[in-house]
Amino acid sequence: MRAKLEHYFMFDQLKTNWRREVLAGLTTFVSMCYILFVNPSVLGAAGMDKGAVFTATALASAFGCLVMGIFAKYPIASAPALGINAFFAYTVVIGMKVPWQTALAGVFVASLIFILITILKLREKIINAIPADLKFAISAGIGLFIAFIGLHDGGLIVANKSTVVGLGSLQTPTTWLTIFGLIITVILMIRQVPGAIFVGMVLTSALGMVTGLIALPKGILSPAPSLAPTFGVALKNVGQINSLQLWVVVLTFLLVTFFDTAGTLVGLAQQAGFMKDNKMPRVGKALAADSSAMFVGSILGTSPVGAYVESSAGIAVGGRSGVTAISAGLFFILGMFFSPLLAVVTSQVTAPALIIVGVLMAANLAHIDWFKLEIAVPAFLILIGMPLTYSISDGMALGMITYPIMMIAAKRGKEVSGVMYALALIFIGFLWILNI
């Protein structure tokens, strides 16, 4: 049985093993388990039951991870996406006065459209049509983006009214946890210690508890809250999607999740070395897994689910097969009952991992043709756009819109595929919808 599983998950081809894959899955889970606490807080502001959202978040994440691992065999984890959950709560429900039940129905309808365009292979064609240089830019841009998230979460970079952002205060004790974690993890990686990123997280958590900077867990086990307040609510309110305003909301859910996921999948596939002839193998299965997770998540009662950039932490540890994603999914299920222990994994603990992974993903910059402006300009806009707009999809939009313009200016317009011209127009519409 074990040999058959290793053959199915291509262990020999990927040069991996069970220990490495499970450790990678645990590292990915630890890097993204904050969503179990953040998502209920965000959606709770919209009036949703926080306990039910906690359970829905865990189950939707587990489902997405398991389907991605078993069906697509990629080490990429899924969970309710940050950013779009804030759009759900603060823009749609609070700002537009749309009941959360109706907003959840909007996520359900968007997921159905998502599944349809996946079956028609439109998403697959779009991903495969993106030029290699821009794929490398997307991967490196995601690296800069998650490094920026890590620097901010760790307190090293903070908001500054005078300069937009600035260096955080070194008088804040918890910031030193991030600095310690970053230094010790880099040392472990240079010394080629197996699972260096995860070991760094454990040591940082231990230091935090010893010094009192991280509170000791109040317990070990805790029962999972009831799912009843949110389960199936989306299905009961589909009929409420009956106005142009609500269809714009549905379209926004669809487009943001579409481009965020596309960018994340491309970036992570580049990092793991999966790309072959500028194409991502089994991309159709990966996209099907992703869209089905969004569908299930909407029924359970949470905002759109998508691939997580934090999967890069598990890939950096050595995760290459679907077992990494499966392991992360199983840890999400366990996480429902061990929530007190998850409290010790603070943002300062995960921040060093995100910063280091950003460094590793920035290596893709070496593969971009910087000596041709028609390539360099859109690539640079993707790179700088992702961290500065705090959005993978917005960063992609800047590069995808300018790419055909630059190529036409360089008299290379015929080299641009029809899909890329269409994509530029779609992104223009995408930015317009987000800003109306």
What does this protein structure show overall?
- With 436 residues, the chain is mostly helical.
- It has 2 domains: 267 residues, no CATH class; 68 residues, no CATH class.
- The strands form 2 sheets. It has a two-stranded antiparallel ribbon with strand order 1-4.
- Strand 2 and strand 3 form a beta hairpin.
- Helix 9 runs antiparallel to helix 18 and helix 20 packs across helix 21.
- The model has no long low-confidence stretch (mean pLDDT 91).
- Its main location: membrane.
- It is found in: Cell membrane.
- It holds the Pfam family Xan_ur_permease.
- This is NCS2 family permease.
H and E order: HHHHHEHHHHEEHHHHHEHHHHHHH
Radius of gyration equals 21 Å
**What is the spatial order of strands in the main beta sheet?**
1-4
Q: Treating each run of at least 4 consecutive H or I residues as one helix, how many helices?
A: 21
Transmembrane segments: 21-39, 51-72, 79-96, 102-122, 134-152, 172-190, 197-216, 244-266, 287-309, 321-342, 349-368, 380-406, 418-434
Membrane topology: Multi-pass membrane protein
Keywords: Cell membrane, Membrane, Transmembrane, Transmembrane helix, Transport
Pfam family, one: Xan_ur_permease
